[in-house]
Amino acid sequence: MILRSVGAVFLIAIAAALSPADEKLKGIACRSVHLGYPAPEGVAFYNEVAVEKSADGTYFMVCGWSKGYFGMQELASGKKLLLFSAWDPAAGQDPKKVPEEKRVKLLHKGDGVRVGRFGNEGTGGQSFFDYNWKIGETYRFLVTAAADGPDRTAYAGYFFLPEKKAWKHLVTFSTLTKGERLRGYYSFIEDFRRNKISATKERRAMFGNGWVKTAKGEWLPLEKARFTADSNPVLNIDAGAKGQRFFLATGGEATNATTKLRDMMIRMKGPAAPMDLPGDR
């Protein structure tokens, strides 16, 4: 499982939220591609995804921000699950060396959710929920942020279960933030299989109907996104605005025919913000 430390990266470039990648990945892995959504600091981040093409070892990350991320994965075994992670504020790679008072704290764990700590690419808290998501189905994600004392923020991850027509509160992690809520919004597709064969398989997904709720309670639509990628030099990547959604594609037969890297895209206006979000309205 590949986990990424993103806080510092967002001070440099929106959505380039992956560990260092270079020309050594050419021919080994698909290039990681991202959407960066410009928006002010908020207390809630809602987004949707529909996967069109997947492969073993893929992360479709839907709701990312400066302190963590939330999305769906297909593992090397073909098993599918949801992943929600939040980072410790301290630099380092060994989770055991992080002082207890600086660690991510678990405030809530839903039924069937597994939680633990990670290291080697930053440190923090992670959670997993087994869920057999389907190609072509639209899935809904929500991250909320609330104060947890004077120096911490509690980040909660919610996933809408279409078969039950209900939201599931997966997990809430608290981390030291100096009062920061949500900022640096992004999505990405990543190939973490990295076995050469994986680079020959295309991954493609539609992201859209994104919204950010400000501290004043105003919902703002995410109608713009900047296309970025890691430093893997391969060019079989693409992104674009398609109706009310954005798409990302990487690997296999994908070609960069729609949007140039670092260009800003604008999608069509969509419906009003959802009315059924947990803890809202």
What does this structure look like?
With 281 residues, the chain is an all-beta fold. It has one domain (21-266): Sandwich (Jelly Rolls), CATH 2.60.120. It has no helices and 18 strands. The protein has strands at residues 33-37, 44-53, 58-65, 68-74, 80-87, 105-109, 113-118, 124-130, 138-147, 152-161, 166-176, 185-191, 203-213, 219-221, 224-229, 237-242, 245-250, 264-266. A nine-stranded antiparallel beta sheet has the order 7-8-5-4-3-12-1-15-18, with no helix packed on it. Strands 2, 6, 9, 10, 11, 13, 14, 16 and 17 form a nine-stranded antiparallel beta sheet that branches. A hairpin with a 5-residue loop joins strand 7 (113-118) and strand 8 (124-130).
Keywords:
globular, nine-stranded antiparallel beta sheet, 281 residues, Jelly Rolls, mainly beta, disordered N terminus
In DSSP terms, counting alpha (H) and pi (I) runs of 4 or more, how many helices?
0
**Overall pLDDT confidence:** 91
What share of the residues does DSSP label as strand, in percent? over 45%
Specify the CATH class: Mainly Beta
How much helical structure, as a percent, in the residues? under 10%
| SSE succession | EEEEEEEEEEEEEEEEEE
Poorly predicted tracts of residues: 1-19
Summarize the structure.
With 281 residues, this protein is an all-beta fold. Helix content is 0%, strand content 46%. The strands form two sheets. The chain has a nine-stranded antiparallel sheet with strand order 7-8-5-4-3-12-1-15-18, with no helix packed on it. Strands 2, 6, 9, 10, 11, 13, 14, 16 and 17 form a nine-stranded antiparallel sheet that branches.
